Known about the structure:
- The protein is of the alpha/beta class.
- It has helices at residues 7-23, 37-50, 68-79, 94-98, 103-121, 142-148, 154-157, 162-171, 197-212, 234-241, 243-256, and strands spanning 29-32, 54-60, 82-87, 126-128, 219-223, 227-231, 260-263.
- It folds into two domains: 9-171, 3-Layer(aba) Sandwich (Rossmann fold), CATH 3.40.50.620; 185-276, Alpha-Beta Plaits (2-Layer Sandwich), CATH 3.30.70.
- Strands 3-2-1-4 form a four-stranded parallel beta sheet, sandwiched between helices.
Amino acid sequence: MSIExxxxxxxxxxxxxxxxxFISQFxxxxxAMSAGVDSAxxxxxxFLALDSNAIAVTAQSPSLAAGELEQAQQLAELIGIEHxxxxxxxxxxxxxxxxxxxxxxxxxxELYGQxxxxxxxxxxxxxLNGTNTDDLGDYRPGLQAASxxxxxxxxxxxxxxxxxxxxxxxxxxxxxxxxxxxxxxSSRVAYxxxxxxxxxxxIDQAEQYLRSQGINPVRVRYHRGDxxxxxxxxxxIERIADMQTRKSLEKYLRGLGxxxxxIDLGGFKSGSLNQLLQIDTS
Length: 282
């Protein structure tokens, strides 16, 4: 009995074959894996390609949101890939704390430097990350750090975009296939404002509170003067602007240490703080 394969499924199978084949060229690899869908797909493909010669590595620091490390551990266990945790030290770097436009470069340099040392101790594994083709058009100084550390990007190199990544993750039944993007907490701090563990904890707890109210995705941006700028999808703005909800929200965030609480009427926009940068795209 023949089994009919839809065009979408065929395309998904082609992407899987492409990325698994790409990783198969390496003798061994270490995947920088957060709890996001991109790196989880790379970790799954790496395990299929190299089995025990592939490991997943998650960085732990104050910039990691609550629950993300545990979810990364669960994903690694589900995939079957060996999982290691690195305690990264980006907060000891003054250039990172100053939080200029290249903050992500310093963070990724720290991560890839530690991963490289780990790889060398494990007989020279190739470093992989979860960059996809959609990431290449955004302002991402971390890509420079990846290039300098010879990190390979299987998804981007196989020309797979975010939609394709989610299709692959869904086919593999990874539970985070539709998870909203969740960049590090430091990305919520306005450029030029120092990144501190205390500020990141305020942001993390504020976002957890909003998610507990059924609002997701959400960003709580930190601006000068302990000001919180809340970004939620347009359909939630009226809800959180309701008088009773607004009062409860303001009280909770003030209790965390925010002095001012605002709602961005433009709604949720990933990477919105990049608007504050004058980026030379020539």
